[in-house]
Specification:
Largest sheet: 4 strands, antiparallel
Shape: elongated
Strand order of the largest sheet: 1-2-3-4
Strand content: 35-45%
CATH class: Alpha Beta
Structural class: alpha+beta
Radius of gyration: 15 Å
Number of domains: 1
């Protein structure tokens, strides 16, 4: 299986269960690994045969701007569903990092894998 890896995507969004988190945007970071078949794109050197990661990033950006779940688990699940629904892939891994979620840790993160 070939994979496209997009790491360190930064977004500013509302996420959290506390009252202040529902009013103050916070930084989150995403790492994505997405299954693809890169052979045809590599052979033809044609973007039309590739998984267009710019479109994926733009799509997720739009989603994150308009959807504000409380839990990182919910957002990770929803982003995986968005990728599987709107792009030509059968498997995705999403890691969502929420820096500063607790004082004692640099960040809290969740990694999920989903497939069609």
């Amino acid at each position: 299986m070939d994979k496209i890896i997009i790491s360190g995507l930064k977004f500013n969004t509302l996420i959290g269960t506390l009252d202040w988190e529902k009013q103050t945007p916070q930084n989150i970071t995403l790492d994505l690994t997405i299954a693809t078949d890169a052979k045809k794109a590599a052979t033809q050197d044609d973007l039309n045969d590739a998984l267009d990661y710019t479109k994926i990033v733009d799509h997720l950006n739009g989603y994150i701007k308009t959807h504000h779940p409380e839990l990182i688990e919910t957002l990770a699940e929803n982003l995986a569903t968005e990728i599987l629904t709107h792009f030509d892939t059968s498997w995705v891994q999403v890691t969502l990092h929420k820096p500063g979620a607790v004082l004692q840790a640099k960040e809290i993160a969740i990694t999920i894998e989903r497939h069609k």
